[in-house]
Write a structure and sequence with these properties.
The protein has no helices and ten strands. It is mostly beta strands and 152 residues long. It has a domain at 60-151: Sandwich (Jelly Rolls), CATH 2.60.120.770. The model is unreliable at 18-25 (pLDDT under 50).
Length: 152
């Protein structure tokens, strides 16, 4: 099979009706082309002389997860969880996705100065090094469990 540079580009989605979307890439004669991971100069990664970068300093200790399941029996009531020192990433969500979270890092702020995490969404924080932090939160519905995943 040879590469034919004369093939037209794949057009954007073509909406025919509210309930029907036709995409040319699902047709047998699609003009799709393979995507390759390349560096800033356009050279393919993974070839001898241009390997994919792997952090040589990464260790198993860099990826130790801790899971906290915090019951939140009452709606609109602030609950808290101490975050372990040296947490590098954090994920917070309502277990069943059926509740809005209000999250803060200062006691009392979960009803004043907070970050909202909508229904079915989660809060994901990475690239940090948290020390002496506590997560304060409240949820919009009663009887929920707040799941917190901390990566050390």
């Amino acid at each position: 099979m040879s590469c034919d540079p004369k093939l037209p580009n794949i057009p954007k989605n073509q909406i025919l009706t509210v309930n029907t979307i036709t995409q040319r890439e699902h047709e047998d004669d699609a003009a799709a082309r393979r995507s390759l991971l390349v560096d800033m100069c356009g050279e393919n990664f993974g070839t001898p002389g241009n390997p994919i970068y792997v952090n040589p300093n990464a260790t198993a200790a860099d990826s130790d997860p801790l899971i906290f399941n915090v019951p939140a029996p009452l709606a609109g009531t602030e609950y808290s969880q101490v975050i372990p020192d040296n947490t590098k990433a954090l994920l917070v969500r309502v277990r069943d996705g059926n509740g809005v979270l209000q999250i803060a890092f200062v006691s009392g702020d979960s009803s004043l100065n907070y970050l909202t995490v909508g229904l079915g969404n989660n809060l994901s924080i990475s690239g940090v090094d948290l020390v002496s932090k506590t997560l304060y939160f409240q949820v919009s519905k009663p009887g929920k469990v707040i799941e917190i995943l901390a990566w050390l």
